[in-house]
Fold these 3 entries.
Entry 1:
Amino acid sequence: MNSLMKQLTRKKFPSETVTKDLTKCLTKWDLTLMGIGAIIGTGIFVLTGIAAATQAGPAVILSFVVAGIACTFAALAYAELASSVGGAGSAYGYSYAAFGEFIAWIIGWDLILEYAVSVEAVANGWSGYFKNMLTAIGFGLPESLTKGPLAQLSLDKLTDAQKALPENSCDFSFLNSCYHFTGDIINLPATAIILALMFMLIIGVKESARLNAAMVCVKLLTITIFIVVALFNIHPANWIPFMPFGWFTTNPDGSTAGIFAGASVVFFAYVGFDAVSTAIEEAKDPQRDAPFGILASLIFCTVIYIIVSGLLTLIVPYTELNVSSPVAHALQLIGVKWASGLVATGVIFGLTTVMLVLYYGLTRILLSMSGDGLLPKLFSTVDKKRHTPVKNTVICGIVMAIMAGVLPLGVLAELVNIGTLAAFVLVCGGVIVLRKTKPKMERPFKMPFGIVLPVLGILSCGALILFLPLVTQLRFVGWLAIGLVIYFMYSKKNSRLAA
């Protein structure tokens, strides 16, 4: 990067002074495996079946294609900005360079919610699989230690008046009726796994990357086993009808279904490649390695999603897949129980890598925002010995462990998709803005076809936001409103640019 570009980077990213203590130790393959580690997890092991059963039927493979296309536009935008802007990395850093501090704060606040809730939600799913594994070997935990004290009432326990309301509206009108105390103590496995990952990230990023690489190999082996078994149990009749819900339809109860609605659901499966860009300050050659890691992980995982979702709906009817572990469940239904057990074990490793990478991404976003003065300095302290933001990591770990241990996160998890889509829209917009304002900026990687692809990225990601439930959109607006209050009361006054 030439001296002019370095001056631009320092001007746009005050946080550069706090990230200098991070160790540049990650290769392009480390970044690629980080992306795969975060992408292949909840999406392939959980959402594939749910989206097929409730949204798209066998055409869920087209839902993955639609979501994958939208992500490809965003990934290309990430790759261009990662190679040219550099600095803090992530949608936050890129928005800072393109739009300035205010928009950067909004997207940073959005990313905090996205990453934190993702970790907590995945931890709850991990807990269920871990509990089943312990039970299978005769070491089951007490029920009170596998569930949080607060739970959402099931539909059959709601009154007729509550049932008649739009979906999720009772969260506001009947708060005490929709949530109740169960008498349970804590979801101990969910809490424990987050704390374990906290210590892993404190030890060092290179060690965490090695652990992630090992677990990625395990879950890829798991997926390979499923593919091989499924190839010998295909029933083409299960694809009739192929599109039972069409491209998009609205059900009588107000819910949506179809390929596009399914795409807005499975979009959660693609969150991971965004996390690759948060590691840019620890990449050995960020201009080359970051674009490679982003694009390679996205392409690889999209192909895997299409293959697995296609085979899954070919071996059993899609109506049988509305379960928490559709891949393992499908293998049980066709009588291959040994493979089902192996897949269930692989899920535990798969979800662990998702949490590890997203947790890592959260701490680096907070590090950058704190370095820019938008958050307290506590979050930007890097340990001189371990070269990791220890205080930052501990605070995040404790808060997320408590949240995962006591709260039902099904409703909050919906915010992850809308937050991710909003981030992608701004990243694509950032490419357009910087091409106009900084046309001579060095761009080792550049999106082809001018601004056509970033415009398509804005339109496709924006369209998927519209397919999400209205209540999710309202909750997202509420979270951003809280962020605006914090910005004008603290961040704007303490910004390093304002100093």
Entry 2:
Amino acid sequence: MNSDDEGCFGEGLTTGGARDAAERIAVEYEPLPSVTATEEALSSAAPKLWAECDNNECFFFALGDKLAVETAFAKAHHVTRIKLIFNRVTAATMEPRGCIAEWDDHLGRFTLYVGTQRPHTARADMARRILHIPETQLRVVAGEVGGSFGMKGGHYPEYALALWASRKLGRPVKWIAERGEGMLTDDHDRDHISEAELALDRDGHFLALRARNISNIGAYLAPGGIISPTMHLGGLAGTYTTPAIHVEVSAVFTNTTSIGPYRGSGRPEASYIVERLIDNAARAMQIDRAELRRHNTVPASAMPFKTGLVYTLDCGEFGENLERALAMADYDGFERRREEARARKRLRGIGFANIIEQTSQAQGETVMVRLDPGGTVTVTDDDEIPTSVGLICTG
């Protein structure tokens, strides 16, 4: 390193200088055994990520009436089976993650300016579990969040590190992720292997549905890591009268980035499974796909209707929606259009998706506001240390 090189490590170090310096560092790595494929994680031959977890299974989750499902399958006229692979995905937001952290020595309080969808959750987790301070000592300001679709709902190590550094240095600290960093460290999502079966009687009525999922949650269970594997399994019921549904989920550790919510996070997977099963059953039983759905759609007259898994539907004109969609798509004329396309050496297809979904997870927030006789307002949420604020009334 020459004298000019040494200068780049002084007080005038710039982002570009730091990057140039980092690129001059040569690191020799000794590869360790790893597992990244979802199904391989449960293999007895797979490397174990954590000593406390002998089979790489982070958690096992089951939902539904297993006995009723097994009874229905035992008397089924036809059973359709599928195996689906939901590949891993991540966001590529126009605005990467970033934050500005500031420690106020006079007030004894941190302020974090960050693009997050869940400022209250981020504050609670960072204050209690990482910084070990009361929540009143951490203020989170979420302005323009930018693109996210769930990925910016979690809190990340860089935010807590920026807060720590701001106090250590006695000055504000800014951190912005580069695109390459984001692809590696932003929460990923999906990454499931699903095997599912649909049991039908001789007339094509659904008797039961069962599924088993292996869900790759990455090397660590992130705060939102249970959402995709477990929170939207009720979508397997769809808008159909399937009387019994049972699903099992095995969440596994692998040497990959942790998962978190992104773009539906479990909702599209559940709907895709049931709709693919129906299409495959229709082909195998030689029943029109639309007709098979008509047979099994929850009628408006049955409301409120308890589905085979999780949901109770209080209203809905699902049959009417189906008929309107078929008419608008000219379903009866589709085969003619397919033949015309084939004559021009083109392929034409048509798909079905009758979807009902849970709009959010159960993350309610409770706030209590108390007006004291001395003119003070005390605001308390259900887990937070009370914060008292002076109140001046006019008029």
Entry 3:
Amino acid sequence: MKNRESRPIVDFSEETATEAVVQSLAQTPDPRLRSLLQSLVRHLHGFVREVELTPEEWGAAIEFLTATGKMCSETRQEFILLSDILGVSMLVDAIANRVSNGGTPSTVLGPFHMVESPRRELGDSIALQQGGEPCLVTGTVRSIDGKPLRGAEIDVWHANQEGFYDVQQPGVQPERNLRGLFRADGEGLFWFRTITPCHYPVPVDGPVGGIFRATKRFNERPAHIHFIAEAPGHRPLTTHVFVADSPCLDTDPVFGVKRSLVRDFERVDDPSRAAHFGLPNPFRQVTFDIVLVPKTDPR
């Protein structure tokens, strides 16, 4: 530890508070950390002054954050949910992806990517239990120049026909239900079998639920499938594909819907095609092509 520098005593007051704390962080060796902490203090103090926060309100905020932390577990991330419903997750994503250069738009990770997806072969079904409307998902992974990305990895997960993820229903859904990690073929193609996802409410049994109740906000997410796509030399992409006929597309509580990510999940009544893909007839089908941006893209 460095020797403490002697300074004149200045009373901590409404007028001196911010500068006193900012200066206390001035010796932070990491310049980025120093910038983040000092800016955080300025904005947090500015908020407190603007709303004239009371001790009781600040105490309630601390209790809320404490309860949010206690709700987190290996299969649930309440802080990510809080970030999502306040729009912070999508704002951070938007800043990180200001210029997509023709790549597929990104969206939030969401609070349910909590377990490792099992490796599956192309064409496998990720639906491990009966029920739901059978669905075929196909697509290609390409670079922005149109070149297929051979061997690209595609991680997928989604809720079941009742709107629950496997981690929300241990003992009801099989472990790793509706999750899969696929590797695209030599032409960048991927395909797998699943069921059509359902719209669902974000969990409101924890502290974040109190925000929904207090603000009268709508908490239903539109039906979607999550994707993470990666290929050597390219920026990883986290995104969704949304079901075009799903309700709630215009009221997504985590602000994740982008028009370019909405797709028709076509209803197919073709016994021979169903048999070819090992699906019951009729079924639904969606094509979702993914375009990745090179890490060294000069644009």
